[in-house]
Amino acid sequence: MLEYFDPSKDLGTKAILSQNLINLEVDGVSISVPEGTSVMRAAALNDINIPKLCATDSLDAFGSCRLCAVQVEGMRGYPASCTTPVSEGMSVTTQTEKLAKLRRNVMELYISDHPLDCLTCPANGDCELQDMAGAVGLREVRYGFDGENHLSAPTDNSNPYFSFDASKCIVCSRCVRACEEVQGTFALTIDGRGFDSKVAAGKDQDFIDSDCVSCGACVQACPTSTLMEKSVIDQGQPEHSVVTTCAYCGVGCSFEAQMKGDKVIRMVPYKGGEANQGHSCVKGRFAFGYATHKDRIKEPMVRDSIDQPWRAVSWDEAFKFAADKIHKIQAEHGRESVGGITSSRCTNEETFLVQKLIRSAFGNNNTDTCARVCHSPTGFGLKTTLGESAGTQTFESIRQADSIVVIGANPTDAHPVFGSLMRRRLREGASLIVIDPREIDLLKTPHLNQAIHLQLRPGTNVSLINAMAHVIVNEQLLDTDFIENRCDSAAFDQWKAFISQVENSPETSEKITGVEAEKVREAARVYANAGNGAIFYGLGVTEHSQGSTMVMGIANLALATGNLGREGVGVNPLRGQNNVQGSCDMGSFPHELPGYQHVGDKSVRDKFEAVWKVKIDHEPGLRIPNMFDAAINGNFRGMYVQGEDIAQSDPNTQHVEKALRSLDCLIVQDIFLNETAKFAHVLLPGSTFLEKDGTFTNAERRINRVRKVMPPIAGLADWEVTLGLSKALGYEMHYNHPSEIMDEIALLTPSFTGVNYDKLEELGSIQWPCNEEHPLGTPTMHVEDFPIGKGNFALTTFIPTQERSTRRLPLLLTTGRILSQYNVGAQTRRTDNMAWHSEDVLELHPHDAQERGVKDGDWLGITSRAGNTVLRAKISERMQPGVVYTTFHHPGSGANVITTDNSDWATNCPEYKVTAVQVEKVSKPSSWQQAFERSDKQQKKLLREPQVMDK
Ligand code: SF4
Ligand code: SF4
Ligand code: SF4
Ligand code: FES
Description:
- The chain has 30 helices and 36 strands.
- It has 951 residues and is of the alpha/beta class.
């Protein structure tokens, strides 16, 4: 275990990136720092620590507390070192009698209005006010505490995770500035003036009722115990910490898990983390309690049929039970009759092992992953056009973007830390173009410069992107140098002729998308003329019948305008789950071995066979939807599912349930009895990210270390469980530690040849490709050429989806996520995040609501061609008339009961974003929901009352 004690010193003000070095002296020490650096930071870099209170190095200097006064030769008075930049030849003195007295006076004023309860204060030992009182040598307070003070100011405990004890506030405004500068929410203000000034959330509301999104930046910034994690108040200060990676979304934030023994007291965003640079969102920062939730599956369990109680067994018995069933199925129905699904929540190493088990122990390529239902079109589309199926930039690169295009993504909810960085760049002046049927929160960014919202009809993305490209070609906004030097000329000529056709004009498109032609023209001009145009997209692009076409359309646009291969530009898929990128990289797809190497390629198979000592099938295996169909047809009978809840997350729930019920053996490895596990015969306890070592790869291709902070609750980490199962199946794999699995990945995967755990320790993280050519990794892709040589323009003909609104089903339903819940909600529903989203609701436009006589909170029956469900109504101006929206975080909502089997033509990614529906007021749950309730109760009962097997 790697221990990190206080890795990041607070240098008081932000780092300045300047090539110009300035020479100065501080307390007689000669110092050289970049031009623009503050005196405070210059001194701190040389271990000369000037007292401070209102300054911290994540925020712009503010200069309000005056504790950091210094003496500068030739300058009058005592300037604040946090707001004074260094200058050539400057001579600074930080310690004199006069300065000491000045600082003591400042501290004395603060302390005279502060409770003196240090010994019982939860921040005792971790309080900057306490430290500074010591640093300036304050021993007594002359003013006493009898005058006017704030000592009886109230505490706001409304936020489930942190409290705000106003009696301890020194009004340094670090919290207010953190909320503005770091998070970009502007939820806090300083109300009043002078003695009456105080921190207020929203319009002097409780935190929970304000705009606060509970990111924790203010808590992090607060130098006192005013804003404090409740877990620390309840359990005391942590004693040691381990740096690890958040297991929620594709941003991949680094955290210090701060611990007492084996218990996590708090998760603090790690400043050294390249993806998040010290910021966090409510999920990673606070919602970790699920790891020790009482619902955790703590022992392996088996049963012969799904209406029987579970029998608790030993690990070995569970492995044998599972292996016997799989062997029997294969003996009776053939090698191809079983398969498995890898997890985008598990580590790279674990995912690698699951697909290896399927290809080696099962002896077929029936492996797939949740990317099938989210980003498989990204793989296809980017590989076809750019030659590599991954995002092209670092997150930080957005700081150089002049125009930011967000398509079918909602970063402030689904990728919140990156959403904050995006907002920062937008406040700095970058323009914003949003292509989305809904008005996403990014459009309400405070101090936004220029924003264009192309609010198209669901299912019409390709028409819109073609229209933008049409404008760029017709108005000669192309980057001809880039096209000439970097792109395939024949493909470009063909594409140019295609895109110039009148069916791709903004006027034709307007009839399809509903977006005014002039607005499309404006957006195309803004992006093409921006200097640096960066595109970010999400599942609103991929989860369509033309998902792959749209990804190629986006890549075409970037190629045509030369927006690839340098900082500030690019094409970037925002990955949903923490390790979607990694699970794709690790060979989860039925046609590709790790590193996207095709199973049909004999030289590739030879390489793997030599190391794995097994014959690999040359035929691609089944995709998830094919597995379901084959299960219903009786040809597919056994399945191993690691850390994925297909019964809740995949479309057309009734079809999925039928498929799962048809299986003779379903092996589920998960931390909870999820919806899929209710159909399982073998339940293998999973381990959370806190219980194992490994790596995750985020949306920037950044490989981050996951470090074990506590032992696996059920005794084995997920990678060890796969080893046990594989051994029982007769294919033994030998690894002592996940680092050895990574060594094998590096041996077999060209883009990973330079990756190993030692290098990860040294560099912190690595962005693949990391190999002989790029030993330190590749922050920006396609700088000189593309993996396929030249950029490949693809023809992107718009073909309307089969899923149309009709008189019977006049509305279009689209689905998405919200900030506080994660994916199927299995983790976040078991945390206090329920305070923000305790049920899925149906958002609809006031016009649609009025037509149907619907009020906020009414129960609405939602009917599609696939099924029906019932949700509460939320009337929202964010919707356009004719479009309704919901999330899928709660299983009982049945959001996927109504989504259909339509899918992307190239990859089978389901068309979650377009479902024709009708809604009407109802008074009771749907029949599916009633059946769900009954089966949920029954399965929980079968779990609660397991039979202990005779030993
Ligand atoms: S938790 Fe985040 S959003 Fe809420 S007030 Fe603090 S900084 Fe602002
Ligand atoms: S709550 Fe903390 S950070 Fe905010 S003004 Fe008060 S002491 Fe400063
Ligand atoms: S942004 Fe994503 S990775 Fe970062 S803390 Fe939030 S959920 Fe975790
Ligand atoms: S730390 Fe410089 S004025 Fe407060």
